[in-house]
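## retry 2 of 3
previous attempt timed out at serialization; input unchanged, resubmitting
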Amino acid sequence: MPRISRFRRPMLDRAVAAYEARIAPLLAPEPAEPAGRRRVAQENDTAVSAALGIERPETATEEHSISVDGHAEVRVRVYWPGPLRAPAGAGLPILVYFYGGGFTIAGIDWVSWDARFAERARDAGVIIVAADYAHAPENRYPTQPEQCWSAFEWAVAHAGQLGGSAERIAVGGASSGGDLAAAVTLMNRDRGRHPIALQLLENPALDLTIGHADMRGISAGMPGVIVRKAGRMLVRQYLGDNAAAARSPYASPLLAASHTGLPPALIITSELDPLRGDGEAYARALSEAGVPVTAMRFVGQTHGSLGATRFVPAADAAHRLIVGELRTLHGAAEE
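## retry succeeded, writing output
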């Protein structure tokens, strides 16, 4: 039997390589200027979604604008599992979710995110409240966590009217949205202590000092120094010139003094993603604090590949894992 080296360089999943090769001709180069980069990135998302046939399933939606003390209001979109709005008092679980985009791009109007929210709501039988938090650098920390906190509090206060249950609420996010989701759980512990049944973190950024980034899985074609430089640029756009803000627990939840009293977690990381270091360190910190946590690393996957459902088998597996976890919330109140 051939020996397997412990130091084998991680390999990109062939399905991911094929997917990336397929969409590469569709992507226009993004300018460095933030507003232009945001516009082109959304155009790229629209073009890729159209070419791949990605569309939102027929689920009922509704939008609301929520006031935020001391900051700009935040828009949320509510997704129900089926084509009709759930009746008040139906008692469905609610997932309050924050999209990923490095704090600077993306949003609930992107075709890919809109479709993902609707698919998860439908497949898990839950209500999703997706917050369209503000972009950096035009809006900087702490605007985003405060907007996300207000969206969460609104969902709790209106759970019954939405057809949901305030006893079956989860908080989730991906990448920068995972940072905001974890921040909201800390804010809830410190401020509100509403019951949160689950925190769902997908490839989360949890230490904005870049101190836990894991470069061992990055290919030789993308040196760690370049990745760190790009990460620091996004952090600077989000936090501004206040370097000390990166150590605030609501900016870097991994650096919080304590993680006791936080909700159970499902944390998903990808082998070829430097943020796997953040997610896996957070899983250990939660476990050491006595918080139930499940951490899953997907081998051969990149930071964004687990969003490519229907094209990457590992992405389909991640979707089933998430949907299965969300389905357990249907019995959370009784348990």
